[in-house]
């Protein structure tokens, strides 16, 4: 039985599907949701001789706050929800939150938006799945995958 579910959101379709799954699980188990968005520093990818400008940490954090608040607005009134925004490497931030707040399940999309300032849930989900002390429920838009 799950009581404290952590849901990683980044505005992607997979994250929206994960939120839908988490809402259903919260209702089934009488659990509380905590939505987390991480203002992750971008990984630089060099494409030729050009460098893309890197957004400031404050801009990344503002985007993460907007994402988590938008996701919270989608949670029905009968499901308890809180939000958290963290800065830093996404998988590490998610795992630290699991430990610090005693979550007993992580729900997240299997692939995110990528790009600057977003959770890159493809690689992040693999890292969280490999290192999480609690079960991880991975969701892809249109499909779900379970893992412990």
Summarize the structure.
With 148 residues, this protein is of the alpha/beta class.
Describe the overall structure:
The chain has 148 residues and is of the alpha/beta class. It is 39% helix and 24% strand. It has helices spanning 13-29, 57-73, 90-101, 121-131, and strands spanning 4-8, 32-39, 81-87, 105-109, 136-140, 143-147. The chain has a 6-stranded mixed β-sheet, sandwiched between helices. Helix 3 packs across helix 4 (121-131). The protein is globular and about 50 Å long. The model is unreliable at 115-121 and 144-148 (pLDDT under 50).
List the helices and strands and how they pair.
Layout: E1 4-8, H1 13-29, E2 32-39, H2 57-73, E3 81-87, H3 90-101, E4 105-109, H4 121-131, E5 136-140, E6 143-147
* Beta-strand residue percentage: 15-25%
The ordered H/E elements are EHEHEHEHEE
Oligomer classification: single chain
Largest sheet: 6 strands, mixed
Give a count of the beta strands, DSSP E runs of length 2 or more.
6
Q: How are the strands ordered across the major sheet?
A: 3-2-1-4-5-6
Which key phrases capture this entry?
six-stranded mixed sheet, 148 residues, 4 helices
């Amino acid at each position: 039985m799950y009581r404290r579910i952590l849901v990683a959101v980044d505005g992607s379709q997979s994250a929206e599907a994960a939120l839908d799954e988490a809402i259903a699980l919260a209702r089934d188990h009488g659990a509380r949701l905590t939505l987390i968005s991480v203002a992750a520093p971008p990984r630089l990818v060099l494409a030729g001789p050009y460098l893309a400008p890197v957004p400031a940490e404050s801009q990344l954090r503002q985007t993460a706050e907007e994402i988590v608040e938008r996701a919270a607005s989608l949670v029905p009134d009968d499901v308890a929800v809180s939000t958290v925004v963290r800065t830093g490497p996404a998988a590490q931030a998610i795992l630290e939150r699991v430990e610090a707040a005693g979550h007993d399940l992580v729900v997240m999309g299997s692939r995110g938006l990528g790009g600057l300032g977003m959770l890159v849930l493809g690689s992040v989900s693999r890292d969280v799945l490999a290192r999480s002390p609690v079960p991880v429920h991975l969701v892809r838009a249109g499909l779900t995958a379970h893992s412990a």
